Amino acid sequence: MNRVFKALNDPIRREILELLKEKDMNAGEIADHFEITKPSISHHLDCLKQAELVISVKKGQYVNYTLNKTVVDEIIQWLMTINLKK
Amino acid sequence: MNRVFKALNDPIRREILELLKEKDMNAGEIADHFEITKPSISHHLDCLKQAELVISVKKGQYVNYTLNKTVVDEIIQWLMTINLKK
DNA sequence: TAGATATTTAGATATTTGTCTAATTATATA
DNA sequence: TATATAATTAGACAAATATCTAAATATCTA
After folding, report:
1. What is the mean pLDDT of residues A68-72?
2. pLDDT tens digits for range B12-64
3. If you average pLDDT over every residue of chain A, what do you get?
4. Which among B13, B63, B72, B65 is positioned nearest to B43, based on CA atoms?
5. Is residue A86 predicted with pLDDT exceeding 60?
6. Where are the alpha helices (DSSP H) in chain A?
7. How many whole angstroms separate alpha carbon A74 and alpha carbon A69?
8. By CA distance, what is A19's nearest residue in B?
9. In the complex, which nucleotide's C1' lies nearest to the CA atom of residue A7?
10. Which DSSP helix (H) or strand (E) runs through B47?
11. Where do the structural domains in chain A lie, given as residue ranges?
């Protein structure tokens, strides 16, 4: 939970999630959408991976990233409990 | 949005939200639930207030805090769009 | 096998953040 | 009005974070 909120607390990482909701992408394709360096993007991807918000699969020399909707669901659940009771 | 995720990225602030979902409380009552000092709690409350996750109303010498469910809803909406498309 | 490409790791640095103590402000009450 | 209580503000400091450049690792292909 901690790691998920930490991962969500950055506009670039949230934008990466928005990209991945459309289609899976490799690290380079993701990096092309931003102005910061590839190592920085790599760091953000690692952060998302640690939170299990994304899953990475190596495919030859590329690394493919996929959104993990399960974890997003868990956070939605938690937020909904906050909004439940009187 | 930025401020909301920033506010959610701290276990104490999330616990404050969980307290306030049960009932409104003043700053002192909130502070009693934690081991850290009152100024630190005050800082956390300010952070939640900036994110508009809580609303504060002064009542005599006390300051009452209420959960603002509207903003929580907005975050739920955003997360749900992430989980929408293929 | 040599060179090119994709990605990550390492190490440095500036900024942000959470905490504390001390001081301040605002209100209540004896 | 003087004192006590509630809460915030100010300032300091250690830890965490986002970024960069340079280097390393892994894979592909001529």
Report:
1. 96
2. 999 999 999 999 999 999 999 999 999 999 999 999 999 999 999 999 999 99
3. 96
4. B13
5. no
6. 2-8, 11-22, 27-31, 38-50, 69-82
7. 9
8. B82
9. D17
10. helix B38-50
11. 2-82
Type of residue found at B68: N
Is-contact B32 B19, C-beta < 8 A? no
CB-based contacts of A76, cutoff 8 Å, min separation 6: B76, B79, B80, B83
Q: Which residue has the tokens 């998302």?
A: A48
- Asked whether residue B47, judged by its CB, lies under 7 Å from any atom of the DNA or RNA strand C, the reply is yes
Positions of strand C less than 7 angstroms from a protein CB: 5-11, 17-23, 26-28
CB B38 within 8 A of CB B85: no
- Cβ-Cβ contacts under 8 Å, A8 against chain B: 5, 8-9
Q: Which two tokens stand for residue A16?
A: 């990466």
Give tens-digit pLDDT for A18-42: 999 999 999 999 999 999 999 999 9
- The domain A2-82 is placed in CATH, from the list 3.40.1170.60, 2.60.120.200, 2.30.110.10, 1.10.10.10, at 1.10.10.10
